[in-house]
Write a structure and sequence with these properties.
By secondary structure, the chain is mainly beta. 6% of the residues lie in helices and 31% in strands. Strand 1 and strand 2 form a beta hairpin. It binds zinc ion (ZN). The site of zinc ion (ZN) has 7 residues, from loops.
Amino acid sequence: MPKVVSRSAVSASTDAHPTASSAAALRVYYCLCGEFILVIDKSLSSLPRRQTDNAIIVRSQDSNDQKARVFKLNAKYADPILLERKDGHERQYRFNCPRCTLLIGYQHTPPPAKSSPFIYILSGALTQMQGQLPQDAFDGENN
Ligand SMILES: [Zn+2]
């Protein structure tokens, strides 16, 4: 049996400072390698998804009728790439796990995360259970 050591048990403190009212509902997500990546006020599975690539949409700026999600992202940005889409080109500023460099998600404007109206988290990139694969880890493998 591989031994899974929970690092959160060792260090209970975090540098995220959510408001008291949202603290109770915060969810923590990890990379498949176990690295802490995201803390957010809503479950990723309940957020809307993009039709193009099924990525999870996280609102990072308030709009007229919708509030931004409260979140903190621990990721490293890479150089932007240009994708061909049916209706034109799409520039993606991608971010990766700081430990294993697995691709986590992207946004359409330069970092930081909250300078963009939305960030997108790839389907199956993150898990709530440290050391366990998410159910949808292999979804869309043939795309
Ligand atoms: Zn990782």
